[in-house]
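Weekly sync, protein design subgroup
Attendees: M.S., D.O., the rotation student, P.L. (late)

Item 1: inverse folding check
M.S. brought a backbone from last month's batch and wanted to see whether the design step gives back something sensible before we order anything. D.O. pointed out we never logged the input encoding, so this time it goes straight into the notes. Structure tokens as presented (372 positions):
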């Protein structure tokens, strides 16, 4: 296993730009936003049909980990370490006796660094027509991978998968994930390379449709421009998970959904650098002055104790279910279960009473904080 101290300086620099920005000050001149799409909104019955279709995607219904084979030239894929590169490689995804010809490519930022991960995160591009019912309606999916073959790296994939399960319990304004057991096969030799856990992440278009809206790629938005209840819930989710690797301002690990009434909802994703996952290669951005990724930081907006108490209620209502979700994951070993449950319980201690809410979220929250 890699040592956290050996990589902390490297990762802190990696996260510093462009992932996070200074969180408190409002710029003197607000950057212009791109215009909101003039595309007319569909009728309500069309929106409902899209919502139902997205909600019922077979891939994201409850079920055991998928057993899949993924065949490609992974030596070439793992050489593609440039963020946002568009290079694609032929692949074959086999599931339930059906072979699907797919295109594969690398993706991500931090985990693309060879000093961090041996194995890159993958994007999977599906053909329009294929015979695998479980992937019906899917176009492009992110596949979260194991980073390294050694140590506990499969356990960290399981922990990241559980972060999505926890957020799903609190709010529908969240991404769904499906766990998979992936056997990687070399396309040339046909030899099995390795088998690891991975997770498929719901496509952002389906998230938006499931919420009755559409994605709005609008950077440089302030707190006041969002649905206030949804914004507070998102920021409390990030605090619960101990995640600071996000920025609404730059659309880093956040998708913005707009509904027909022109309300905006932030939806977070990508929690691998959170304290709840606690991977050995992650470190907080040094500008946040945190000693460890397990240190929590509430990054706004400021609210009254009464408002925070109302926002905390959906979390409290699902406390037992969250702990049960961690405990019931058979694939997660006892050490990681104990660590995750302890970290989650420390969050619930901080939202248990109005007095603790005041200490945690109200005291010290600067009124000037208007974006993150």
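Designed sequence read out in the meeting:
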């Amino acid at each position: 296993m890699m040592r956290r101290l050996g990589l902390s300086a490297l990762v802190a620099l990696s996260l510093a730009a462009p992932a996070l920005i200074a969180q408190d000050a409002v710029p003197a001149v607000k950057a212009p936003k791109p215009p909101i799409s003039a595309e007319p909104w569909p009728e309500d019955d069309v929106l409902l049909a899209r919502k139902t279709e997205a909600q019922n995607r077979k891939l994201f219904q409850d079920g055991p980990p998928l057993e899949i084979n993924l065949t490609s030239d992974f030596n070439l894929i793992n050489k593609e370490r440039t963020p946002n590169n568009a290079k694609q490689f032929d692949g074959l995804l086999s599931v339930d006796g059906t072979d699907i010809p797919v295109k594969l490519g690398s993706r991500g930022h931090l985990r693309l660094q060879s000093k961090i991960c041996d194995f890159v995160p993958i994007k999977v591009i599906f053909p329009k027509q294929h015979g695998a019912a479980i992937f019906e309606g899917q176009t492009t999916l992110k596949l979260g991978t194991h980073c390294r073959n050694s140590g506990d790296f499969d356990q960290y994939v399981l922990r990241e998968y559980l972060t999505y399960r926890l957020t799903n319990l609190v709010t529908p304004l969240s991404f769904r994930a499906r766990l998979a057991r992936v056997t990687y096969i070399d396309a040339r030799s046909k030899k099995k390379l390795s088998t690891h856990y991975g997770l498929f992440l719901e496509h952002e278009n389906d998230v938006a449709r499931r919420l009755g809206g559409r994605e709005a790629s609008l950077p440089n938005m302030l707190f006041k421009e969002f649905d206030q209840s949804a914004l507070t819930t998102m920021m409390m989710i990030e605090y619960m998970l101990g995640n600071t690797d996000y920025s609404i301002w730059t659309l880093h690990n956040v998708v913005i959904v707009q509904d027909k009434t022109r309300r905006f909802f932030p939806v977070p994703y990508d929690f691998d650098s959170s304290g709840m996952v606690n991977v050995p290669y992650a470190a907080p951005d040094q500008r946040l002055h945190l000693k460890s990724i397990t240190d929590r930081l509430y990054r706004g907006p400021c609210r009254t104790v009464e408002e925070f108490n109302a926002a905390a209620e959906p979390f409290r209502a699902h406390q037992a279910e969250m702990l049960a979700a961690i405990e019931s994951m058979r694939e997660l070993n006892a050490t990681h279960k104990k660590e995750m449950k302890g970290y989650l319980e420390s969050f619930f201690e901080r939202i248990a009473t109005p007095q603790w809410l005041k200490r945690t979220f109200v005291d010290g929250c600067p009124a000037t904080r208007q974006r993150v």
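Discussion: Strands lie at 66-72, 89-95, 98-106, 122-125, 140-144, 177-186, 192-201, 213-215, 254-259, 264-268. Residues 4-32+43-47+213-362 form one domain.
Action: P.L. to compare against the previous round before Friday.
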